[in-house]
UniProtKB/TrEMBL annotation:
Residues 1-160 form the N-acetyltransferase domain. This is GNAT family N-acetyltransferase. GO terms for molecular function: acyltransferase activity, transferring groups other than amino-acyl groups. CDD domains: NAT_SF. It comes from Aquimarina mytili. InterPro entries: Acyl_CoA_acyltransferase, GNAT_dom, Mito_N-acetyltransferase. It holds the Pfam family Acetyltransf_1.
């Protein structure tokens, strides 16, 4: 598997992953009915960098890295990761996380923060904790889960 910066040619493949991930309404804040044209602002905006993970030439995962805040808060990175559901449990998330942490360090970020990690997304919480992210806050009922209703969301952080 290899990770590279995304190009405009990856748009449709990333959309396929994005659509499958958000339609479940259990891990991301994006409306499950988000339109393909909106991927540009969510995954290809000018202030972020987009990467893809390939296995044998097929894109199976993606992540974005961007400043968590503007100006005086821009020294902290924020990332979002998505793996095609057919490739869950095969180490793709780990590879994306490791790459993003190294990338953030090279880009000069001092820390990384995830603003909303859904508390019921146990696999993600455990993965981020494995990479030394700490839960630094809980947003009570901060996420409207598609089947569970309002559930807590975590803010997770680690220094780089």
């Amino acid at each position: 598997m290899k990770i590279r910066e995304a190009t405009p040619k990856d748009y449709d493949t990333i959309w396929e992953i994005f659509e499958k991930v958000i339609k479940t309404g259990d891990t991301y804040v994006f409306d499950p009915q988000t339109q393909k044209k909106d991927l540009t602002k969510h995954w290809f905006a000018s202030y972020m960098k987009t990467y893809v993970l390939e296995e044998q030439g097929k894109v199976i995962g993606t992540y974005i890295i961007k400043p968590n805040q503007i100006d005086l808060g821009s020294h902290i990175a924020n990332c979002s990761y998505m793996v095609h559901p057919n490739y869950h449990g095969k180490g793709a998330g780990k590879m994306l996380c490791e790459h993003s942490l190294q990338n953030a360090k090279e880009m000069g970020y001092k820390a990384m923060q995830f603003n909303i990690v859904v508390s019921t997304n146990i696999a993600a919480v455990k993965l981020w904790q494995k990479y030394n992210f700490e839960i630094i806050g809980t947003i009570p009922k901060g996420y409207k889960h598609s089947s569970l209703g309002y559930v807590d969301a975590y803010i997770m952080y680690r220094e780089i």
